[in-house]
Amino acid sequence: MTTDPGFWLLQTLNALQLSMLLFLLSIGLTVIFGLMHFVNLAHGALYAAGAYVAASVSAVAGFWAGLVLAPLAVAVIGVLLYGGLIRRMRRSGPMAQVLVTFGLIFVALDLTRLIWGDIALASAMPPLLEGRLSVLGIDYPLYRLFVIGLGLVVFAALAFVLGRTQIGAMIRAGVDNDAMAACLGINVERLFFIVFCLGCALAGLAGAVAAPLLSVSPDMGLQILIPTLIVIVIGGLGSLQGAIAGSLVYGFVQTFGAVLAPGLASVLIYGLLAAILVIRPTGLFPAKG
Amino acid sequence: MLDAGQAMEPVLELEQLCAGYGETQVLHGLSVQAAPGRVLALLGRNGAGKSTTLKTVMGLLPVRAGQVRFRGAPMPRQPHDIARAGIAYVPETRDIFPSLSVRENLELTARRFRGDWTLERVLTLFPRLGERLDNGGTQLSGGEQQMLAMARALLMNPRLLILDEPTEGLAPIIVQQLHDSLQALKRAGLSMLIVEQNFGFATALADDVAVVGRGQVVWTGSAAAIRADTGVQHQWLGV
């Protein structure tokens, strides 16, 4: 099968689709960490919340309503989290932040069980994206192409905002050196709040996009957390390039590993992670500060 | 006389200031005033508390006791509010943002604080930067980084410019250029507070000098007076 070009194309598209999903998750987490050195392990729980909101809304009002409302709802959760917890924990050390946000995962887990029950929810694809599309000779599910396209659009939009606008320059300055950015009149805390809410919204978007692909279950946030953390460690903390590079590395290694060396697939990515940490301890494209 | 009295209200006033890092208190009741339109140099040995004073003024270290007043009003607490109140700070380490180009480093402040200092005007003062606008911030030499840090500060159109060790690590010819640039700013009437190890450089630029020793101000006077007073130089500066 490995001599069939269709096989390689199919797996490449699968890898891209996984990469884009991970990118939507990791970009928020990595910039939040880069800007404020804040470790938010509950990021996966926000992704699960996005999936649940999207599944519930789409059952009533259709997929597109869910796709729009889920990021907004998760951004609102982000505002509440920030005001209630994270702002107070900014000055406590990373260990306290890790423990509290790790605890939040379990709070979220039980909250979703209370609200939606302990069963997996199915979420329907939009009729518009249900079919398959012929891509260079292979039939590929349209919805997965949509996920790839959405990831690329978000990447392009973030690359533009971070690279070409004043607020993007402010965010990069804050990631490089938050104290100096503040001395130039930038309200770094407010910048962090905006980035945090945007990161939450993107996690919610990832959940909404993933809902029709995977079964929506309470522990989906926990399952995605480790891959997301691997992505940002491979890519390097705090940078957009790092998030996209790490996502691509993870997506391709995981996908091709699973079909080419199924026995090794589960350890392959950890081996790669270890190798990258030895060769480039700060990851592929760390923020420069 | 009233006008003269108002004009002489200190631009910056530190009163019995105490501050430090963690368990270590560095400033023990430091008091000093900076007069508007003049250059005040803080001199003293390493560890005397000069840089700590500047960081406390900028809100990077909390005020543990005492007061900081800026143009007659209590200083805000947060660094970004202090910056917006009209204080620009050039730290010892320059702190150019490595992820930003030279142009972005400058526009960061140019767009927020509009006034007499424009991009064109700072590029007239530091023409080297004009040739480097699209370079990354850290591709610059030490002297160029110092100029960029100063240009970025000037674009804040500050009422007080704070410089920490501006000549550190710079070649003598660059130090001379820096001196000329700072003299030009002084002639333009900008109030400055400067910490500097280079005694000759500091006293050539400054109008007033405060000598800091063990976290307090131990001597104040004019730059001319300290140049003539070898006793103070010997006791507090080790010159």
Automatic annotation (TrEMBL), chain A:
Query: Where mainly found?
Result: membrane
Q: Which domain of life is it from?
A: Bacteria
Segments spanning the bilayer are 20-39, 70-86, 98-122, 142-162, 191-214, 220-240, 252-279
Q: Name one GO cellular component term.
A: plasma membrane
- Report the record's Gene Ontology biological process terms: amino acid transport
The membrane topology term of the UniProt record is: Multi-pass membrane protein
Q: What InterPro entries does the record tag this protein with?
A: ABC_transp_permease, BCAA_transport_permease
According to its UniProt record, where is this protein located? Cell membrane
Q: Which UniProt keywords apply?
A: Amino-acid transport, Cell membrane, Membrane, Transmembrane, Transmembrane helix, Transport
Per UniProt, what is one GO molecular function of this protein? Answer: transmembrane transporter activity
What protein is this chain from? Branched-chain amino acid ABC transporter permease
